[in-house]
Specification:
The complex is a heterodimer of chains A (335) and B (509).
Chain A (H helix, E strand, L loop, with lengths): L10 H6 L1 H10 L3 H30 L18 H7 L18 H4 L3 H27 L6 H13 L2 H11 L16 H4 L11 H29 L3 H9 L4 H29 L3 H6 L8 H10 L3 H30 L1
Helix pairs in contact in A: 3-15, 6-10, 6-12, 7-10, 10-12, 12-15, 14-15
Chain B lengths: L1 H9 L2 H29 L27 E8 H5 L1 H10 L7 E8 L3 H13 L7 E5 L3 H6 L6 H4 L2 H10 L2 H5 L10 E7 L2 E5 H6 L4 H9 L4 H15 L2 E4 L6 H13 L26 H15 L24 H9 L3 E6 L1 H7 L9 E4 L20 E2 L1 E7 L5 H14 L2 H11 L6 H4 L2 H4 L8 H9 L1 E2 L7 H16 L5 H17 L2
Parallel strand pairs in B: 1-2, 1-3, 6-7, 9-11
Antiparallel strand pairs in B: 3-10, 4-10, 5-7, 5-8
The chains are: A mainly alpha (335), B alpha/beta (509).
Family (chain A): Belongs to the binding-protein-dependent transport system permease family.
Protein name (chain A): Carbohydrate ABC transporter membrane protein 1, CUT1 family
Pfam families (chain A): BPD_transp_1
Chain lengths: 335, 509
Amino acid sequence: MSTEQPTGSAPRRERSGPYVAVVRWMENLSETQYAYLLLTPAFLLLGAIAFWPLVSTFQLSLFADSLGQASVGEFIGLGNYVAILTGERTALLPSPFLPQSLTVGAMFNSALAVTVVFTVISVFFETIIGFVQALVLDQNFRGRRWVRVAIILPWAIPIVVQGMIFFLMFQPNLGFLVGTSDNPAFLNQIGLLTTTPLANAQDATMIVIVADVWKTTAFMALLILAGMQSIDRSLYDVAKVAGASPWQRFKYITFPIILPTVMVAMLFRTIQAMRIYGLIETVAGCTTVPSLSCLVITTFNNRMLGSSATVAFITAAIIAAIVSVYIVGYARGDV
Amino acid sequence: MIVPYASVMSDDNTRNGVARREYLAAAGGAGATLGLAGCMGGGSGNGDGSGADTATGTPIDTAAPEEEITIQVAADSNFANSQEAIMKTLREDGGLPDNITVEFLAGSFTTGDRRSKYQQILSAGQQKPTVFMMDNGWTIPFIARGQLANLSKVLPGSITETVKQDYLDNMVATAQGQNGDLYGIPLFADFPTIQYRKDLMRQAGYSDAEFDKWATEPMTWTRFSEVVKKTMDATGKTGFNWQGAAYEGLSCCDFIEFMGSHGGSYFGTFDNYFGPIGERPVTVDSENVINAVRMMRSFIYGPGNDPAALDGIKDISPDAVVQYKEESSRKPFTNGDVIALRNWPYSININAAEDVFGEDLGVMPIPYAVSQSDSEYETIGGSTSALGGWHLTLNPNATDTRKQAAVQLFKALQTDEVRIKMFEIGGWIPPIPDLIATERTRQLKPIGRYVDSLKVAGENALPRPVTVVWPQESTQIASEVNASIRQQKTPKKAMTDLKKSLESIESQV
């Protein structure tokens, strides 16, 4: 390397060159500072990949929609945020961002409310059912491998195929779960579903939730199972010798040890659930079940670029807020 | 994560000291490489999307280019699969010079996907493809944004004048700018009709003489519901399927027909259909429009069971219509469970096939409630078919030679023989009324039996009111009409709410 100086020749000059200055500066860094220095390129790269699209979306959200032009509209600062959050833009959106009133109908028409309802209910059931599945799979029994395959199978099905399965199940004249007014199916008779569930916001949201639980419970089960398998078996032996009941073994050994794993799994699922789009589009359509991602995509397709970027950025902000709640909770649990 | 790493490092300070020095030397080289990569990755696009504006109005040399040239037409797989047959008729009947080859590209069948793709291509100022096949439901926004070549300026007057004179007026209207200039050449048209089962209706006592009359003389909705109801009673089958889901198909098409055939309109007279936005009246709360919604409710629930139903209209449609789109409503009909179906001509080809219903399939124009002469607005009322169909538009960013070649393609398409052959090859209905029902087209199987009904439908075809805000308005229309036919809102409340949203959209642009 040209920058390298031969040892011995003019040692005084070596001590005052810029190269030497940098080396000296580096050698004087504390271990932690040096570690961060080494990580800087990785942070920069990650920042460019992760934050550049976010910053660029934010930038787009500061410009007005321009329905009649080929490019974006004029700079309006936070105008889009104000218009969307105050409901001023509701008429131009396929569905309102916030619910316009507190009735059930208005809730199921609002992108934010539908997304929150979907996320809370689906993640709740996925966690509970996934937990139970993991507990079962953690036991030793004949054919355990086959049961594992059966549980993971829904996770392997492509969203579009799964969407089509659920779409057909609830299609009048085709699906076995829905009848007609003259010949109602069981779910119609008990009043759980109308005869046209995919046109009804509440029914369709419920169907999408069930479809999501059916598919992604496997994901939860696998993550939780991995946590369970990492528990030192001798702890159970000791507990058994000490006379702990199965419930006590679960309560004092299994649950505390896998809680961090469950939290991480729930974090992943919550992020995914907040972004729900594909399943809705294939099962019921974004008009019936308007999620936040649906709103981003429909407004974008309708050339409301500023509004679309605004909703996208707000969605990202909401997800970030939820993630920080988990991370703060997780950090506390860790201590 | 940092803590254990730092503690490991502090175990061996000496080695780390040397490592830092070596690291710096190595990083110097790596940094230079990264820097170079950064330079290469730099983009040079201007990104303002205005490139399209400069080339929309320069006249094109009408002489055929002399070199071998291929132009691309962004179309669908039906066109791509019939490439050879289309080229043959373009050359032999249309006189397309041998040195010009037209390549039809297969795009998505989903119209919205095609629209998004064209938006990207035109916004980026790409030179290819030279010609776009555009849905008449969204050509006007591209015109309004100045993204298409103005054919009135760049094409010879002979072509544009023929289009304006001979083609379906309402179809041409969806390819024109506010100033009346032409931006697209209609390629083919599409108009829904009512398909019905003659065999089932015979069981209810209707005769072939009546079917012949119905084929070209639209009946009233009251009569239609009686005929279907009587057939339902005689056969035990489901009555009438149409598309009531909350989607573009409801606002652009089914509701335009129900409303238009009651003499109702979204924005008053037809002159207001394509603007000016914000200055036209919103007329969806008029009695005619509300009656149309009430009729849809009568179809589903019946006058006895729904206080908002329209008297005299029988309950002939299943509940499922509020969830039906084209294919979901067609399948039960093709399966033989349904008496009548409102759908596009593609489904005539399916249902009239010999192994489905063959000659037992009847077709009639859409029935009506208020004739055009009794309607408040001129040219609205009477039997109304929604107008579907596609235009060919010219990419203003294409090279001059390719534009010259495109002119030759447009010229070839003006030939009647080419239009009829296109009907034969792919079932693309000519957008020219005189060419729909001819001796030649009557020979086509199986659609030839129904060309007289299609001609009537074509003459009564009404386009959707496309403007740059139509996508937003369409969503509101579909959701309000759907809410009302699901009995969530009375027709009056739904249409009053719709009027408010439409006025709000109109005022915000």
